[in-house]
Amino acid sequence: MKPEIPVVLPHRGPALHERREQIIRAALDHFRHYGYSKTSVADLAKAIGVSSAYVYKFFESKQAIGEAVCMHSLGQIDDALREIVHTNQSASDKLKELFSSLLSKSLALFFEERRLHDIAAVAATNHWSSANNHRAALYSMLKQIIVEGREKGEFESDTPLDEVCMAIAGVMTPFSHPLMLEEKTPEQLEERVLVITNLVLRSLAK
Amino acid sequence: MKPEIPVVLPHRGPALHERREQIIRAALDHFRHYGYSKTSVADLAKAIGVSSAYVYKFFESKQAIGEAVCMHSLGQIDDALREIVHTNQSASDKLKELFSSLLSKSLALFFEERRLHDIAAVAATNHWSSANNHRAALYSMLKQIIVEGREKGEFESDTPLDEVCMAIAGVMTPFSHPLMLEEKTPEQLEERVLVITNLVLRSLAK
């Protein structure tokens, strides 16, 4: 058996992972300015000075690039929310902050970055893995907070944990879903998130 | 002052209100078969053997016809749900039935009548008065049930009534909204409506 000899490729510009990042950044930039549907793979290739064929070595389709952009943006929301779980607040306060931050960060992503709203709507409606990951991340944060609240004696423990988490995750959906968020004004949404969080906290009371 | 003399118009076919109904029925039929966007006012006029100009005497635009069709379909849901409010069940059971019937009737309207889903989505997203009326009707039924539950001592009375109603109405939205309903299977929705109803009932407990 021959020993494996590491193959050293001639250096031809940025490393592969950097190229990948470069494509995602160009895509984010283009989607922000022109929208997802009006951006082609050729536009992105041109922006970073490579051929479309080269871009296809990294992403098999425009949708794959869209997924990567969504993964990036939703991942940033998840990272910010995860910090709430690790603060020193009571579980009730963590839950309140989780709801209100989810709303404000989703609004910022979908509306301040208006053009990104379109791609997020496509992702949510078509169950892209980025949207599914985001949902799973939220569910897991929620579960941690509920478990903590039960352990600390803040929340009731009679109802099965999974039932409680599934119900609260369902109740949260409208505050992270691009299509739902656009139907109300931010003020209406903020009022609604408040009264719904209070309802959830009453449902968790012992 | 001259006495008002009733004007008797010569009889020229169906009475006006019957014509209006006829246009709505033809529209419902066309929207079901071809969808809202693919139906023109001319198609409807042709179907009932009148001119487009004649149809425009009753409805100023295709959207106005769409509104009337939505009003009709959502009104049927509201009528059926209103019966729940007047049964002899406990307020908790009424609330459970209100949630599950809202889901099943919305699913039936939007999905068994697949083509009507499109128009309902347009109505919901653009806040057509039909969608607003439906929302208001649901809110009023909900409020009646909560008031009754408070009077009977089934529900807590500490939280302001309007806050409770607004929160529950918000929690119900995904079960009546055409865009939300299409993202899950009916089985997932039924499971979700059940766990969310239970969450709401826990939040109402004394």
Automatic annotation (TrEMBL), chains A, B:
Keywords: DNA-binding, Transcription, Transcription regulation. SUPFAM superfamilies: Homeodomain-like, Tetracyclin repressor-like, C-terminal domain. The keyword Protein biosynthesis does not apply. Signal peptide: none annotated. It comes from the Bacteria. The keyword Transcription applies. Residues 40-59 bind DNA. Residues 17-77 form the HTH tetR-type domain. InterPro entries: DNA-bd_HTH_TetR-type_CS (IPR023772), Homeodomain-like_sf (IPR009057), HTH-type_TetR-like_transc_reg (IPR050109), HTH_TetR (IPR001647), Tet_transcr_reg_TetR-rel_C_sf (IPR036271), TetR_C_27 (IPR041478). One of its GO terms (molecular function) is transcription cis-regulatory region binding. Coiled coil: none annotated. This is TetR family transcriptional regulator. The lineage of its organism: Bacteria, Pseudomonadati, Pseudomonadota, Gammaproteobacteria, Enterobacterales.
